[in-house]
Amino acid sequence: MSRVEKNNIPRPYNLIANERANNSDFSVDEMFKFLEGNSDQHANSILEISKLLERDLVLRNKPGYYENTSKDEIRRTTFLKVKQLALYCERIVAEQLANGVPYDKIDISQYNNILFTYAVYDPQTVTRIAIHSGLFYSAIKGNGTKAQFNYWAFEREGLYAKGVYGCFGMTELAHGSNVAALETTAEYDFKTKTFTINTPHIGATKWWIGGAATTANHCCVYARLIVKGKDYGVKTFIVQLRDVDHHLIPGVSIGDIGAKMGRQGIDNGWIQFTNVKIPKNFMLQKYVQINDDEEEVINSPMDQLAYGALLGGRVGMVMDSYRVGAKVTTIALRYAVGRRQFGKAVNKETNFASPQQVDNSLKLEKQLIDYPNHQYRLIPLLATAYCLSSAAYRMVRNLDAVNSALESTQLLKNKKFLFKTIEDLKEVFVISAAVKPSSTWYGAKAIDECRQACGGHGYSAYSSFGQTYNDWVVQCTWEGDNNVLSMNSGRSMTKYRQSALKGRPVPSQFKFLTKSYKPSDFAKLDFSDNARLLELFDFMVISMIDEVVAQLKKYNKDFDKVGPLMLNTAKFFCQRYYLESVLLYFDATEANSSIKPALVNIINLFALYTIKENSGVFLRFGLLSQSQIALVESRIFDDLLPFLRHRIVALTDAFKLSDFFINTPLGNYDGDIYNKYFDLVNSVNNNKSDYDDYAYQDEILKFLKRGSIEEREYHEKDAKTLEKLGK
Amino acid sequence: MSRVEKNNIPRPYNLIANERANNSDFSVDEMFKFLEGNSDQHANSILEISKLLERDLVLRNKPGYYENTSKDEIRRTTFLKVKQLALYCERIVAEQLANGVPYDKIDISQYNNILFTYAVYDPQTVTRIAIHSGLFYSAIKGNGTKAQFNYWAFEREGLYAKGVYGCFGMTELAHGSNVAALETTAEYDFKTKTFTINTPHIGATKWWIGGAATTANHCCVYARLIVKGKDYGVKTFIVQLRDVDHHLIPGVSIGDIGAKMGRQGIDNGWIQFTNVKIPKNFMLQKYVQINDDEEEVINSPMDQLAYGALLGGRVGMVMDSYRVGAKVTTIALRYAVGRRQFGKAVNKETNFASPQQVDNSLKLEKQLIDYPNHQYRLIPLLATAYCLSSAAYRMVRNLDAVNSALESTQLLKNKKFLFKTIEDLKEVFVISAAVKPSSTWYGAKAIDECRQACGGHGYSAYSSFGQTYNDWVVQCTWEGDNNVLSMNSGRSMTKYRQSALKGRPVPSQFKFLTKSYKPSDFAKLDFSDNARLLELFDFMVISMIDEVVAQLKKYNKDFDKVGPLMLNTAKFFCQRYYLESVLLYFDATEANSSIKPALVNIINLFALYTIKENSGVFLRFGLLSQSQIALVESRIFDDLLPFLRHRIVALTDAFKLSDFFINTPLGNYDGDIYNKYFDLVNSVNNNKSDYDDYAYQDEILKFLKRGSIEEREYHEKDAKTLEKLGK
């Protein structure tokens, strides 16, 4: 026994162990492979990286990780981890250079996979270094020439934070989403061949710049190019912020923007520029050049291609959403299996190590997971994570293909190839603009619902939910505010649909917009048929877009007026995209795979849950009837939830998140919830023999033992005193 | 000018000042009175208390309030404020005692109003003292005799934290919501006339006990009364935890449960009892006594009345929900008026102090508030706060009436009066079990949506949203988990409906369940008619309950199976309750009041928003047609939102939350968003001449300037070295 106890105690570990042993009819390994892009290679790579991370003592957080530590202390420990990650990157690059790989061919995808995997454990550390190696260098890659990228990344060795530590100077205090309206200026002087960078007023102060407050010595500044008084729009410039002694360059003002809701470990700062001069070639010149002889600006219309490099962040956030969903549903579902409350236990024997031990005198309560309401709160979130994983891998692969095309020598030689690449890039852009928002909102909702599903203990810092939520929710705002992105995506889809109706070509992943359906097609829909449900989802997106078009007529083509509708269209498109993606991957699994029965039901639950949660719109457009909604509900509650409940431990095990990644006793693999939680609380908090040594203990005692009001007021108002003072 | 700037700058303060001056057609004072229970007296009292709090330098938080401070430091500053609040309580009691008021008649409602008002500013401080003066003393009042209450509260002067500091020992590690299953035991010994308190195993450890970790010296322990081996269920016992030197009593083990998602200032702890003996009279004896002569337990069946005293907390949380909604919508809506993004400005002149100054060369962007999507995100949340205020005041008044009845001498003399009181108490119980969950969920949603609506700046700690959210969301869990409470409430409503159908009496606020409607009654519904909409809401609740009943048949009366349906019933009942309450108060306003036109539209928006958000259920039950939903949407977007948008500054001013309560530059009254935000960030963070003095600056520099891998590895792998080591 782990502590002195009588027999009559809750044993969540036996519940979980027994359910793990008895309630699984599929291979957890096969399921894991499916979740990792249906690829053995990916699945193995994730496991290898997970092992590497789990063993790294610099990257491992201390038990006090969830304590309120001061911002400076969090910043410092985060930097130690940033250094360690940079060293991994350095090795990966060095190995390739040693093997003669040229700069242009160096592949850091292994390093990026380390970051993505570590992000579920420590998002702030990953963001902090990804601003440098991801955003800063992606901006240089996207906007700069190869020579420029190779200089900053490899000749200077900056890619792995040697000599150069970059930050990404886009957002301004008064300008977030609207990049085209940024107000920082870069004015060119043909005489000195330099740019002068200026912050015209407080609203144009660069704000939220991660790394600026303390770490960065360079910044990729987004500023308006001004030449001979003419404004050529927003371009990118490399500006040194700190010199070789890490002292600020004169004209550069920097401050720390201080505390945030989460991710305190990132040193976000503000920057103001006052007449800071940089050489001509510090402008990134892939799509814009200045011809000094003709005194003119050569502005390429293809500068939209620059954003391809930044899409990686947005697509990565979809993968993050999958992983955070996997993490929090694992915690809440394991807790739901181990925790009892109220009603009579359904099966007592699972409380015991072996069924022979059953003590029928015990009044055991019901496991949380046996309540239909609890099932409905959690299992659809798990199902969404399953479907989301396919969508995330699909998007990563699509973006990889586009980025390869962007790097291809074909690009500038072959116009057809160029146009195709531009179209493909735009397609990824539109899809990610719908899927990033809804996926990050899913993440926020999953964390919050899973926290609530763990009751009071969910509110303990050691449940991990609080910090996970606080770190997470910025994903709904940065790299494109979720509302703004969704509306933009909905707008693009509307245009695709209008093109489709006119017989013009639409991108391949929007081909479904050319279809035509009528409600009667679905009058006898078999709700267990996932492929048919996808067609219903097609119809739903089409119906929503057609409503957008109708409303646009009403409002004289004022797109702002149909904002809420476009938003909902993009939201529903995302659900459709999840379903399409997971079915694509499902169809690619082996015919006799053991995971199929569970997976079919998982997918089906996701689809039917989506219908139920959006039943207002399905009914509104007449796509389904009232009695069909009743059928959907009956299938959810009578078939799918009970089926999946009995496989629930295996379904969370299939995420293969070790206790290192779970990082809370409420969701550990062995399910020894109460002992581990109690021990963790005491290891962090109660290391002294008793509680009498608190600094303010005396203050409490002095207050409790205070004298009467009369004593504390020098008895000035006592009757005797007042007598002396007059009548 | 506040800093050196050219003319071309964003001026949110002019936007807000001009809208305040020009876009209001009602009296803000009258509206404020309406919001404070439609009572001049309440409105004035709130303003007086607000002034008192705003001026109190102990209660005022420092500018670093939103920084990551260590838990110990937050605990200490919170305790200083707890002391100050206790001193207010002491004065209020002392004044009455000096005027000869007997213990039984002492009224601390003024002190409680101070707590409620302060809670919107500093929830953790209020909770910390309210656990003592509210929960601990409410438990004594509810369960104890008058003599017991008077001793602990007044003779010992404990009520205002003199000598006695209490905590509330209900929750256990393995038992939260299910109080009846608590496992701590209190075994009576007739020989020694003492109880022995024991924690049988780790799962029964008292957990989450606010005040236990450091402050409390007494605990009201909920434990099973065991007499001669028989279990009489859970009763309440006063147990001393710490002695007069504040040292733990032997047998009492206490630990700090450490960091939480929010409210770090509360010293929650765990407690284990090992054979702790207390005298017989330390059991609270209003509803249970032990007769030593007969060696028997006298257990009153009326012990449910004890919970009346605890309902205050639950009802208070509805008021909290109103105030937090008021706070966050004020911030987000003022920000939405001052902040510009994207599209062309609708009216440029409001940017300037006077219309003569308009500079048409300025490219001004559109105010956020002019986007229909932004309006739809925020204005319904404001409208909900308006309706919620009426519901909160109504519940407070109902509970006050019940509590007066519970204190009445009639109670034990007049059986009819007793039964009526039991029924009334149950009615408040059922209503609060529906309204507390949905209101606290509204609070969480409002904070989160308002944060997102402030974009990136919403994620800054100085926006206040982060801490407000973290402090808030525990309200969805404590004093009855929202899901559990809602399902229980839905179950009671189902029973009321079944009684109603059988012609049996139902409580007055559930009389609407006796009505009968048919869909055709609403076929020609005028959606601007709030009174008719209330009837529609009646019908909706009735339809949902009838569905619960139908499903219960299907599932053989297994209430757990219909949990999700009961939950939704309670949720919708709450919306109906808001509507009914606000219409009650609206009907009581003066006929020619200037606030009526705005108020009618606010209420209408709330009702139609509720329909739109629940359209799936309205359509499912056939209460409304598809075309009616379209009408609802058109009325929201074409009439109500544009109407309210033009009064939006006045509608937030009407909450009368001064900058002290708003506590963030994003939502200050004067709207000088950027200057004040910038100044606050720098006053807290950037007080040094530059950033070169960071403790880990050297570490950064050393890392950036590190040598090559070869150097760092002692050149052991250089070709020359390897040559020496063999072939």
From TrEMBL, chains A, B:
The active site is at residue 479. Keywords: FAD, Fatty acid metabolism, Flavoprotein, Lipid metabolism, Oxidoreductase, Peroxisome. Its cofactor is FAD. GO terms for biological process: fatty acid beta-oxidation using acyl-CoA oxidase; lipid homeostasis. It holds the Pfam family Acyl-CoA_ox_N. One of its GO terms (cellular component) is peroxisome. SUPFAM superfamilies: Acyl-CoA dehydrogenase C-terminal domain-like (SSF47203), Acyl-CoA dehydrogenase NM domain-like (SSF56645). One of its GO terms (molecular function) is FAD binding. Pathway: Lipid metabolism; peroxisomal fatty acid beta-oxidation. It is found in: Peroxisome. Residues 167-276 form the Acyl-CoA oxidase/dehydrogenase middle domain. It comes from the Eukaryota. Gene3D superfamilies: Acyl-CoA dehydrogenase/oxidase, N-terminal domain, Butyryl-CoA Dehydrogenase, subunit A, domain 2, Butyryl-CoA Dehydrogenase, subunit A, domain 3. Residues 307-492 form the Acyl-CoA oxidase C-alpha1 domain. FAD binds at residues 171, 210. The keyword Lipid metabolism applies. Residues 28-152 form the Acyl-coenzyme A oxidase N-terminal domain. The keyword Flavoprotein applies. It catalyses: a 2,3-saturated acyl-CoA + O2 = a (2E)-enoyl-CoA + H2O2. Residues 531-691 form the Acyl-CoA oxidase C-terminal domain. PANTHER family: ACYL-COENZYME A OXIDASE-LIKE PROTEIN (PTHR10909:SF352), ELECTRON TRANSPORT OXIDOREDUCTASE (PTHR10909). Belongs to the acyl-CoA oxidase family. This is Acyl-coenzyme A oxidase.
